[in-house]
Amino acid sequence: MAEKKKGLGLWMCIALVCGNMIGSGVFLLPSSLAPYGGMAIVGWVLTAMGAVLIALVFASLTARMPRDGGPYAYTHDAFGSFAGFWIAWGYWIALWAGNAAIAVAFTSYLSGFFPILASNHYAGGLCSIGLVWLVTCINLRGVESAGGVAVVTTVIKLLPLVAIATLGLFWFDADNLVFNPNNLPVGQGISSVAALTLWAFLGLESAAVPAGDVENPEKTIPRATLIGTLIAAVVYIGVTVAVMGVLPHDQLASSPAPMADAARVMWGDWAYTVVGIGAAVSCLGAINGWSLMPCHVSAAAARDGLFPKRFAQLSKRRVPAFGLLVSSVLVTILLICNYSGSRGMVEIFNFIILLATMTTLLPYAFAAAAELLFIATGRKPARHVGRAVAIASLGFAYSVWALYGAGAETIMWGMLLLMLGLPIYVWMAAEKHRHGEDSSES
Question: What pLDDT score does 248 carry?
Fold first, then answer.
């Protein structure tokens, strides 16, 4: 009797979704959002609604056609090989670039305990690169190992956040929460908040990407995607409200560690240390989950002949090891450039975040459009057509609006990176033609 295949269950998939979303952003965003005051809550709610719409699109798609590769797979099936390659290329860049940002954030949090990490670029760079390769080794051991780490780190990171979001209400001072402290135009302010908060929701598709390694994917992935997104949304909004009510506006706007500062006000210095450690663990959990994703996307594209075939090869532990190692090398190169350059860490960190956001939103928009195409053509009929069309349409509109909010400069750089993938597509098409394969769109 063959041994039953083990993989990622419901709780591991929920942990991957939560762990990938609840990373570095939530611990820093209250300070970034301080200039917007109470408008930040409105922006959070709108972003959460948009994230839930996208999550429902992925839940619907994976329930009917669970495929390894997530948004790439659905784009390829709906629009053919070129669109599939374009999305896979951009999504792949977004995933490993995001890992670099999380590694920098991890080192920044640790610098509160080890100041040399901030004062010495070599020490900071070695710490960030060391984290990348530690997580790479964990993931090389297999998806069960990575899923187990995701469960543990998600629980650890949620404890201080939930404590602040709930118990922080006992220290809440309504005078600290001003709706519009800088008298900004309300529409402009909410759009700016939406652009800032979107980074915190990237990763909602995490359970759909390694679909081939998920137990009972038709049920597990939709449930994990929706539950994980809702958990993250509640935590984000609750924490932001609590911190804005605990810390005076001026102190919050200038705080490099708003969560830890709020915890210190509520419980003392020991709480500052605990939350700081929780932030570091949060980054560890996030990069653990995100490291799985670029190698699965590249493996799915390679199986369709759009990436070199070696990306599709699995190790004895069913891991696309070559793709994992390539993405880790690219993250390392990006970190070396980061720490050896003249620009400040925060400036580069913010740019990477916006770039990752832009190149991830494009796959979200294509996934929503793929859902509409499947329904319109009857290729993958939905159970409740009217509801599915409404959700996919709203999800597409939200993705386009959020792309606009990312800013012209970010969109320009993102498009340039996407264009750099075209020679790779030409090369792969030539290889297929040389070996007598049909290179036409499927």
Answer: 85
Nearest to 431 by CA among 303, 300, 307: 307
User: Is 214 strand, coil or helix?
Assistant: strand
Phi, psi (5° rounding) for residue 74?
-70, -40
Calpha distance 298→309 (Å, rounded): 10
Q: What angle do CA 403, 408, 49 make, to 5 degrees?
A: 20
The C-alpha angle with vertex 83 and arms to 82 and 88, in degrees rounded to 5, equals: 100
What 3-state class would DSSP assign to 345? helix
The greatest distance separating any two alpha carbons of the chain, rounded to the nearest whole angstrom, comes to: 72
Cα 176 from chain centroid (whole Å):
31
CA distance 358 to 361: 5
Contact 173, 246 (CB under 8 A): yes
User: What pTM does this model have?
Assistant: 0.74
Which spans in 8-113 are helix H?
A: 10-21, 25-33, 39-64, 71-79, 81-110
**Residue spans of the chain under pLDDT 50:** 1-5, 438-442
Which element (helix H / strand E) includes 360?
helix 345-377
- Asked whether 428 and 217 are in contact (CB, 8 A), the reply is no
Count of alpha carbons within 13 Å of 71, Cβ hemisphere only? 32
Residues 6+ apart with CB under 8 A from 183: none
Contacting residues for 398 by C-beta, under 8 A, at least 6 apart: 49, 50, 53, 54
101: CB partners within 8 A, 6+ apart:
24, 349, 352, 353, 356
Pick from 386, 330, 368, 350: nearest CA to 79? 368
Q: For residue 363, how many other CB atoms are within 10 A of its CB?
A: 25
- Residues in a beta bridge with 214: 8
Which of 150, 61, 3, 93 minimizes the C-alpha distance to 381? 61
What is the chain's length? Answer: 442
Which residues on neighbouring strands pair with residue 8, listed in sequence order?
214
Cα separation, 386 vs 384, whole angstroms: 6
